[in-house]
Structure formats: C-alpha cells, structure tokens
Amino acid sequence: MRRRAALKNLGGLLAAPAVHVGAAAPAEQPVLRIAHLTDIHLKNDLGAPAKFTRCLHHVQQQTPKVQLIMNGGDVVFDMNKENLGAIDDQWKLMKSVLKAECSLPMVYCLGNHDIWWHENTKGQATYGKQYAMQQLELAKPYYSFSRSGWKFIVLDSVHLDVDATWYIGKLGDEQFAWLENELRTTPATTPVLVMSHIPILTAVLMIQDDVVNRWEMLGGDMHTDTAKIINLFYKHPNVKLCLSGHLHLRDKVVYNNVTYLCNGAVSGAWWKGNLRETAPGYGVLDLYADGRFTESYVNY
Ligand SMILES: [Zn+2]
C-alpha cells in the first residue's frame, strides 16, 4: 500500500522517493531494502548512545522492513584523539549498543576516524587499520558480496598521503586492480552498488563560506582518483549507485547514469545538531532486480 502510494506521487511531489535510471517507476517489488548509516561517531558523551539507539529503533521500524544495514564508517567517535583505553571503550560501547538494540545484519566500511595513526605508535598492534578491522571482524579492508541479485562492493578509501602524516581519499594501485577485476568478472546484467567512506564524487565541497575567487578541494574530503574510477565505471554501465558519508552533508550527484549519494551522518554535527542544513539521519534504499532503485534520506 505504502509503496503504491509513494509511486503514485512521483509526478513531482518532493515527499516521494526519487526513482533513477529510466523514467518509469518499477512495477515489481524491490528485491532488497537497505539502510545506509554513516558517520555514527559513537562515544559515551553528548547523548550519543541514546540518540544512536533511537536511530536504530527508527531503522527497524521502517515499513517495509529494512533487511540489511550498510555502515559507511566513522563507527567510533575518533581513534586519533584518544588514549587506548578510551578507544577501547568506544568500540565496546558500539558492540554493546548493537547487541542490545539491533537485530539486523550490518556490513562495514572503514572510516578515517576508525583508524589509528599516532606517529609514536608505529609498529604497535593498534597502529593502522588492523585494530579497526579486528573490531569489525573484517578479513580485508575492501571486499565484495552478492545479495538478492545485486553485487555490493565495499571500498577502502582512506590512505596515508605521500608524506605519510595525514590521509587522503584514494584506492591505491592494488585495490584499483582488484576493483577492475571485480567489475570485469561481474555479469553485465548484475547491478552494482559501491560503498566508500570518502565520496568518490560530491558537490558539497562547493558549499563553503568565505570563498573569494576559488573553491578549495582537499584530498581528504573527496577521492583524489575520481577521474580514474569514473572512467572504470563508464566501461561497466551496471554500476548504478555509490554510497558515501564522511562530509556529514547530504547530497546527490548523477554523472554518466551513476548516482553518487553522500548520505549525511547519523551523528549530524558530531552529536551537536545539524551540520549546516543537514539534520542527523540515514539513507533508505529499495533496490530492484533490473538495477533501478528508490532512495530517501530519513531524519530520525
Ligand atoms: Zn565522520
């Protein structure tokens, strides 16, 4: 009923979810409904546990039911500004909230704040991505899986810059070769959804205060290998949708029939309300067998 009502509204009402790739609304049922939760930044402060719990309940009360949560990274508040005890507490808190309040399966992508890069901890077990991967039970920082006729590709977009002091958004040669192979070996009829923490393509970097005569695009804000990735996607029209977070602002860019959705942040402005015009929220997406999808950003 609800879906039919929503589809009937597609004549242009803002409240209706947007349908992509082809003008006609899908007549069939979606094959999968997912929620995209990104930038949760959980810690035991700022009312974060209670607000995150409310968000999880909101996701699980969706009708039709959400079947899978895609977690876009920045799972914990920040690995880089805390001591090891505080970091451990953030991960423990995340696990206990999820165990108590969430019965849906969740897949993860690494965010920059999930990775410990203290210079003076190089060589220790906590250094780099290994610690977060252990917490999230990830064998590799990037991977793929198939579900309901769609292929899901989870990327690791956070890498140290050439001077090895800070991160930038990129895949690196090894992961790019892996991505090429993944797409080459995926049947052309299988729609592909890609999730990264840092956006591959976004327009929100152009929303900045105090711009005099140019915008500044930082390599940590958006992928620096965007052109290369887009060129690869162009060879594989079954790539339909790219989800990201990182910027805590919601935007949607469609380029070469690929939709790039930066889905705000569960934490909004790090648990202090809205960041600019984007309120805390998450994405809900209905995926259809033929590669079409509907999506909306939901405030909880
Ligand atoms: Zn974040």
Question: Care to describe what's here?
Answer:
The protein is α/β, with parallel strands linked by helices and 300 residues long. The two termini are 22 Å apart. It has one domain (30-204, 217-293): 4-Layer Sandwich (Purple Acid Phosphatase, chain A, domain 2). It is built from 6 helices and 14 strands. The model is unreliable at 1-16 (pLDDT under 50). The chain has a 6-stranded mixed sheet with strand order 1-14-13-2-3-4, with no helix packed on it. The chain has a 6-stranded mixed sheet with strand order 5-6-9-10-12-11, with helices on one face. It has a two-stranded antiparallel ribbon with strand order 7-8. The chain binds zinc ion (ZN).
Element layout with pairings:
Blueprint (H helix, E strand, L loop, with lengths): L1 H7 L9 E2 L12 E6 L10 H13 L7 E4 L12 H18 L4 E3 L21 H7 L6 E5 L2 E5 L3 E3 L6 E3 L3 H12 L7 E4 L30 H9 L4 E6 L5 E6 L2 E6 L17 E7 L5 E7 L1
Parallel strand pairs: 2-3, 3-4, 6-9, 9-10, 10-12
Antiparallel strand pairs: 1-14, 2-13, 5-6, 7-8, 11-12, 13-14
Helix pairs in contact: 2-3
The protein binds zinc ion (ZN).
Zinc ion binds next to loops.
